[in-house]
Amino acid sequence: MSPTRAHDNGMYSLSTCWNSHRHTDGRTMLQEIAALGFDYAELSHGIRVSLVPGILDAVDAGEIRISTLHNFCPLPMGVNHAAPNVYQFTSANPRERESALKQTFKTLDFAVRVKARLVVLHMGSLTEMKPKGAFLGLFGPPDFTDTLLDMVGAKEHESPKFQKLLAEAVEQQEQLKGKPMELTAAALKQIATRAADLGLQLGIENREALEEVPLDSEMAAFLKEFPAHTVRYWHDTGHAQIKEHLGFLHHITHLGQLADRLGGLHIHDVAFPGSDHREPGTGTIDFAALKPFVKPEHIKVFEFSPGLKVEEVKRGVAHVKKLWSA
After folding, report:
1. Per-residue model confidence (pLDDT) at position 34
2. How far apart are CA 130 and CA 141, in angstroms?
3. C-beta atoms surrounding 166 within 10 Å
4. Which residue has the higher pLDDT, 83 or 30?
5. Per-residue pLDDT for 227 more than 70?
6. Would you say 320 and 266 are in contact if contact means Cβ atoms under 8 Å apart?
7. Where are the domains of the chain?
8. Model confidence at 106: pLDDT above 70
9. pTM for this entry
10. Are 200 and 108 in contact (CB under 8 A)?
11. What's the Cα-to-Cα distance from 275 to each of 8, 74, 106, 206, rounded to whole Å?
12. Which candidate, 282, 295, 299, places its Cα nearest to that of 326?
């Protein structure tokens, strides 16, 4: 039975983040997804330009349909690995912001060409947000997210040190969010106008990093500034669960508060505390508790690690479908 049949609660899709790295031909990449029983695929942010001709061949031949694209798609010229944050709308560099807009518009045009319904977006980050007095390593100072996750994994989440670092993260979020949020809102206004003209929806994704925007606590208010038909909330189950492990939100409550703007979901599980894109049913996410908020009209995209085997993909998909079936 195909993962997209009506009694399975609507449209199910598989992201190419699972298999794009293994293919040099876009058609065989999509045929592999179709062979698993999917009628839809998401073109993720690892789609190299060289894969595009085969993708168009598969779509034009009716071998599979495209549910969604994940910005930037295809990748900018010269970029050959998944890089959704290679250009940021929140950058202090106007040239980078211009590149982010330019590449996003290209993604929108490609979405129209492959008849996708929605484009998933990352909206930027607080680049100056760093723990005070952090040791400068080979790749710069560690960020709050990784540091706190390491402490949770080491069962130090009740320690005074953890609580102090958590409070510092919240303080810096508040201090630094102003200008980046102005920049990302200005960019989204332009993107939303173009998307509406093209008949596309946008999905603003919740992020796993504390350094990224919009902040979870402000997502609802942020979305209210944009037309609901065009700009939707995109819920990533793994990202929300990681934030729950860090103590920043309650996963089920967070989704419920944004359910009226929900456009779709990235579905994957989390091995405690922060290893996501795992097989559903093997981690800490209570998928049954998410069911009341998931409707047939929502786009449901399985976003799996390339390391998952075919058997794990099938088992994870079956787990969610069984729980979410009407």
Report:
1. 98
2. 7
3. 18
4. 30
5. yes
6. no
7. 6-126+177-324
8. yes
9. 0.94
10. yes
11. 27, 26, 31, 16
12. 295
What would be the CATH architecture of the domain defined by 6-126+177-324?
Alpha-Beta Barrel (3.20)
Q: How far apart are CA 236 and CA 247, in angstroms?
A: 17
Tell me: pLDDT of 265 over 80: yes
Encode pLDDT of 120-163 as tens digits. 999 999 989 998 865 544 445 578 999 999 999 999 999 999 99
Contacts of residue 143, Cβ cutoff 8 Å, sequence gap at least 6:
129, 130, 131, 209, 210, 211
